[in-house]
Amino acid sequence: MSFETSPSKLALADGTVVAGVAIGAQGESGGELCFNTSMTGYQEILTDPSYHGQIMMMTYPHIGNYGAHDDDTEASQPMVSALVVRAFSHDYSNLLAQESLHNYMERHGLVGITGVDTRKLVLHIRQCGVMNAVISSIDCDNQSLIEKAQQWPSMDGLELASRVTCQEPYSYCDTGNHRIAVYDFGVKQNILRTFASLQCQVKVFPGFTSIKDVLSWEPDGVFFSNGPGDPRVMPDSIATVQEAMQTGIPLFGICLGHQLMALAQGIDVFKMYVGHRGANQPVKNLLTGKVEVTTQNHGFSIDPESVTSDGAKVTHVNLNDDTVEGLKFKKFQGFSVQYHPEASPGPHDSRYLFEEYIKMCSSPSSD
Question: pTM (2 decimals)?
Answer without folding.
Answer: 0.95
